[in-house]
Design brief:
The protein is of the alpha+beta class. It has a single domain, classed as TATA-Binding Protein (2-Layer Sandwich), CATH 3.30.310. Helix content is 35%, strand content 23%. Strands 1-3-4-5-6-2 form a six-stranded antiparallel β-sheet. Helix 2 packs across helix 6 and helix 3 crosses helix 4. It is globular, with a radius of gyration of 17 Å. The N terminus is likely disordered.
Length: 219
Amino acid sequence: MPARLARRTDDEPQIVEDLDERALAEQTAAVRSASSQQLHQPTRPHVTIPPNAWGEPQLRPAAQRRLQTALRKHTWESPMSAERTQSVLLLEAALRALGLDVERSMTTHTYTRSVVIVPIPAVASVTRLSAGTDHPLDIDVFALRPAPSAELTMVRLERLEQQNLPTARALLRAFAAALPRPPWRFTLRQRLQPGTGLLDPTYRTARLQFEALLGDDVR
């Protein structure tokens, strides 16, 4: 069963709140420290903006509905096949190539993962890239662990709106072009990692979510 973020609802028990505060604080500090060390790189990758970066994609009706939902919630989120550290560096380079000033910050998210049928609280380190001034866009990158030996990278766009949608599309197109494999395409090894499986809907979710923003660019 794939890991999922813990979200507060009126009728859902807050499993994360039951976690011992000291243990959670220690886990959070360890995650932040490890993440900061991984992202300290002496060189930055170079990203080229593709010619079609600013084009208006053709969206199927289902993709249009998912896009409208994302705009209404001002949030778009998807799993992806790229590794977390690589994704952060490439997304930051793509934002700079688009001529945007970028600020990087660190935070954490708590989520639950299921071991057998028992939900276990966990902490994910989040790297946030904030870009733009008039209509700012926040890009969060973090990794969930559906199992101790498995990792699933997530990307989330916050403060998404119609005005910065072209920037979001150009960013994701440049990011996808810089990767050896599109972020919505998973290898067989990734599909077979512990905690997930070939029938896991996570992989199809990635393609559908990217399609909501990039339309027929997703193949």
